[in-house]
Specification:
11 helices, six-stranded antiparallel beta sheet, Arc Repressor Mutant, subunit A
Length: 299
């Protein structure tokens, strides 16, 4: 963990303490670049002792709240009381002065995005000098809710092979945020073609050479010197797959080759091609090829 990340985690822990919340699940030591994930619960119903100025951009997604839950918040001096349901999201940009009170305990997902991640993700599609994320009192946004739940499920099931999935999901999420919750709606630059052929080959060669590793979206975009969103868009135009889908496909293809040409066990093949476990391989193998690894091995 870098000094900057360590300092941010220290601030994060201080904020959790102020909010009187306990962390149940986080992405500590998962290698997610510029993204923080915390699934937390209230220790008791309480109010913040004083306003907090958020050090980075954050979203809090309410996932489990009791009936008659009442939430009161003050954002940059504006006070509002709301009755919430699961799926409501609170958007708090960097530098926002924030205070809240809740009458009952709750559980939720907090996502934090470092400013550097936003710059890498959006620099070629959105002018961050002219736009800023606008604070939002709790609002129901199905896309934010589903991405939050998907990241939580991925952490719970495949903790040590989540990096590319997480960075891809976060790239889509922050683009969505700046489309819908910026002070002025951005216009994405149109792209008429995919990646240059030599850059596409460079990325594909890197993926095949590192299938056993936890490949990150940041690594792939840096390889061809592009922002995350611009790279993801051009890569899909070139291949028909998102980077995450393409890596899964490559891993399944390599596993099929090893099943037919080697005596390695299915479990060993799973690890060798980068899956977290044999079950993870089997699920993707059957989804893409229509049969299980065992059936292919027995042919």
């Amino acid at each position: 963990m870098s000094k900057t990340e360590y300092e941010y985690c220290a601030v994060e822990q201080a904020i959790l303490k102020s909010f009187n919340r306990q962390s149940l699940l986080s992405n500590d030591d998962c290698g997610w670049s510029g993204i923080r994930f915390q699934f937390t619960r209230s220790i008791s119903a309480s109010a913040l002792p004083e306003e907090i100025v958020f050090p980075e951009n954050a979203i809090h997604i309410y996932t489990d709240i009791p009936s008659e839950y009442v939430f009161e918040a003050r954002i940059n001096g504006q006070l509002k009381t709301s009755s919430l349901v699961a799926g409501h999201s609170l958007i708090i940009p960097r530098g926002t002065a924030y205070w809240q009170s809740e009458n009952q305990k709750s559980q939720g997902i907090t996502l934090g995005f470092h400013s550097g991640f936003l710059a890498r993700t959006l620099s070629e599609s959105i002018d961050l000098n002219c736009l800023e994320l606008h604070p939002q009192f709790p609002t129901f946004d199905p896309l934010i809710y589903q991405i939050g739940l998907a990241l939580k499920a991925e952490l719970e099931q495949n903790r040590h092979s989540t990096r590319l999935y997480a960075e891809s999901a976060a790239t889509f999420l922050v683009t969505h945020l700046f489309h819908h919750y910026a002070l002025r709606k951005p216009t994405l630059q149109s792209t008429r073609s995919g990646l240059p052929k030599y850059k596409l080959q460079q990325v594909i060669d890197y993926i095949y050479a590192n299938l056993e590793c936890d490949i990150g979206l940041t690594q792939l975009a840096d390889l061809v010197q592009m922002s995350l969103s611009h790279f993801s868009r051009l890569f899909k135009q070139s291949t028909g797959y998102s980077p995450h889908q393409f890596v899964i496909k490559c891993r399944v293809d390599r596993a099929r080759e090893l099943l037919l040409k080697s005596d390695l066990s299915i479990a060993d093949i799973s690890y060798q091609v980068g899956f977290a476990n044999q079950g993870h391989l089997t699920n993707h193998f059957k989804r893409l090829l229509g049969v299980t690894p065992k059936v292919v091995r027995e042919k």
